[in-house]
């Protein structure tokens, strides 16, 4: 599907630098000075307990939320300038009230006009070619999320953000999504994925960012993180303790 | 009972006078509806997806105008089109055009306010995805209108129902002139006051049938959309 980016070419949006990112909602500081540098290609998994600020950080990266303070740069660009090189898959897939194929055509009108067969290929990549002409919202949850991913990948993003994209999906859909994410990463797309699923993080992650209380508590290579987490909060999280 | 029988005879025999009135009513309301839809759908959508100072006041105004008394609309359009009014030189008073203008003024706030609510709900659902896909401006407006097509159809049908049943405004600006500006509602009012219940009942029956048809269409459209997950 990805024809423009050659395999293993590093994303043009690296390194991602986040400095002193703060976000206040009401009277609560939900991001309390996030400092983070992501400079390696591959898949970064953001983990942490509920309310740690993982999704908000992802939304700030994508430009959906403007932080109250702090700076984000992606390569040489600010968030706004990098928008057309990013794609995001949300936890709840939002599909237009059209067929699966029309959803893809809407996201990529130029491709739909010049290379319509690419839309079918995109559907085939998520095993939905036989559902092309079905109303997208009549697909199952897993199928809808697979379609969302196919739609996101049509733009050949340099940075792919996934916000708990496989939460509560069937194993078959999880497998399809993970395979596609890995393939996309291998082609040079930087992937940042928020997940609560430790199994998934072990399967996919090259490095882990662990967040707690609106801050980055730990950042380390995935192998190291799962064998020897550096912070007590990460240790407790991996041990399955309930954190607030 | 005799009047009712005679009324059905007029309908069944396709009485020319009756159907002249019916045709004018439908023509005026349909033209008003088309003009109003062209204005109100983009307006309602634009108000739903843009943010500017005074936006809430505009929505409040639209909602308030939904309940504007038809006779007030009739009076305003009359003042506008009367010989000494700003548009008097057009010579539209007591013509079907004047009735169309009055109906447009009357139903535009209704369709705009209803469509605004429909699009507002859709916007809440779609806004993050549209941002992510880089869909903005005209493309977003068109997408909202296309995706809300079934809900908007019901808004438009509600506008048609209001227009076709309207009497106060069209009688003021149309004058209820026989063979020129006499529509179903104004004819019913006139014939009833004259004691000619036959024609009034015939027209009333047709008006009731039209109302039932419009409401059936609304329900049908809703059910179709829900079944296809397009609601």
UniProtKB/TrEMBL annotation, chain B:
It holds the Pfam family BPD_transp_1. Keywords: Membrane, Transmembrane, Transmembrane helix, Transport. GO terms for biological process: transmembrane transport. It is found in: Cell membrane. One of its GO terms (cellular component) is plasma membrane. The chain crosses the membrane at residues 24-48, 60-81, 93-114, 155-177, 197-221. It is a multi-pass membrane protein. InterPro entries: ABC_perm_TupB-like, MetI-like, MetI-like_sf. Its main location: membrane. PROSITE patterns: ABC_TM1. Residues 22-218 form the ABC transmembrane type-1 domain. Gene3D superfamilies: MetI-like. Belongs to the binding-protein-dependent transport system permease family. This is ABC transporter permease. It comes from Marinobacter vulgaris.
């Amino acid at each position: 599907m990805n024809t423009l980016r050659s395999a293993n070419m590093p994303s043009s949006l690296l390194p991602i630098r986040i400095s002193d990112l703060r976000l206040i909602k009401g009277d609560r500081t939900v991001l309390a000075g996030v400092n983070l540098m992501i400079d390696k290609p591959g898949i970064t998994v953001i983990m942490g307990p509920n309310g740690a600020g993982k999704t908000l950080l992802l939304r700030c990266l994508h430009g959906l939320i403007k932080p109250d303070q702090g700076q984000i740069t992606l390569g040489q660009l600010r968030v706004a300038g990098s928008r057309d090189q990013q794609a995001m898959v949300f936890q709840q897939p939002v599909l237009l009230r059209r067929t699966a194929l029309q959803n893809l055509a809407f996201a990529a009108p130029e491709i739909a006009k010049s290379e319509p067969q690419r839309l079918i290929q995109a559907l085939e990549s998520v095993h939905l070619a036989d559902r092309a002409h079905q109303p997208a919202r009549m697909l199952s949850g897993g199928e809808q999320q697979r379609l969302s991913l196919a739609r996101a990948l049509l733009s050949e993003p340099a940075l792919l953000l996934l916000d708990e994209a496989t939460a509560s999906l069937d194993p078959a859909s999880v497998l399809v999504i993970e395979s596609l994410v890995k393939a996309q990463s291998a082609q040079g797309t930087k992937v940042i994925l928020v997940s609560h699923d430790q199994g998934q993080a072990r399967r996919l992650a090259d490095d882990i960012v662990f967040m707690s209380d609106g801050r980055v508590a730990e950042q380390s290579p995935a192998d190291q993180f799962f064998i020897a987490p550096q912070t007590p909060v990460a240790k407790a999280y991996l041990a399955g303790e309930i954190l607030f | 009972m005799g009047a009712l029988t005679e009324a059905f005879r007029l309908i069944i025999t396709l009485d020319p006078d009756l159907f002249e009135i019916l045709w004018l009513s439908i023509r005026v309301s349909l033209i008003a509806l088309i003009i109003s839809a062209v204005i109100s759908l983009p307006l309602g959508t634009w108000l739903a997806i843009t943010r500017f100072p005074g936006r809430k006041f505009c929505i409040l105004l639209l909602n308030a105008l939904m309940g504007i008394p038809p006779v007030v609309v009739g009076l305003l359009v009359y003042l506008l089109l009367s010989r000494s009014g700003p548009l008097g030189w057009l010579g539209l008073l007591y013509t079907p055009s004047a009735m169309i203008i009055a109906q447009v003024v009357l139903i535009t706030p209704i369709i705009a306010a209803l469509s605004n609510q429909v699009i507002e709900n859709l916007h809440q659902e779609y806004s993050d995805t549209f941002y992510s896909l880089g869909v903005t401006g005209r493309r977003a407006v068109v997408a909202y209108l296309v995706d809300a097509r079934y809900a908007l159809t019901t808004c438009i049908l509600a506008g048609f129902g209001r227009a076709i049943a309207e009497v106060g405004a069209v009688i003021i600006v149309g004058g209820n002139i026989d063979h020129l500006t006499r529509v179903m509602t104004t004819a019913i009012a006139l014939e009833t006051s004259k004691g000619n219940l036959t024609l009034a009942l015939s027209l009333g029956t047709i008006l009731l049938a039209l109302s039932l048809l419009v409401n059936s269409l609304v329900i049908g459209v809703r059910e179709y959309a829900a079944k296809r997950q397009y609601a």
